[in-house]
TrEMBL record:
GO terms for biological process: proteolysis. GO terms for molecular function: metal ion binding; peptidase activity. InterPro entries: Metalloenz_LuxS/M16. It comes from the Bacteria. This is Putative protease. Residues 1-24 form the signal peptide. Keywords: Hydrolase, Protease, Signal. SUPFAM superfamilies: LuxS/MPP-like metallohydrolase.
Length: 92
């Protein structure tokens, strides 16, 4: 029992000592992606895929919100948008 406590304490101290030295480099955007922002704040990204010429367009939608961040006018958007995307497998 005493040995277990000492090992846990030593392991915790070792983790705390090394935690300050571990730093990751900031991620840089991939230059193959074209990206921009519309006047309404919508951010878009496009990736050309010459290795797959049969691909027309692939759309990925990232909604940076949740039900707790919605105002009264936006109520239900964070649930509705993923539902629409899941149901629209092929369009038109």
């Amino acid at each position: 029992m005493q040995g277990t406590k000492i090992r846990l304490l030593a392991g915790g101290l070792l983790m705390m000592a090394t935690a300050g030295y571990v730093q990751a480099d900031a991620l840089q955007p991939d230059p193959a992606w074209q990206q921009g922002t519309l006047s309404n704040g919508l951010q878009w990204q496009v990736l050309t895929t010459p290795q797959r010429p049969s691909d027309r367009v692939e759309i990925r939608l990232l909604v940076n919100t949740g039900s707790l961040a919605e105002s009264t006018q936006q109520s239900g958007y964070s649930h509705a948008i993923p539902s629409y995307c899941a149901n629209a497998k092929r369009w038109p």
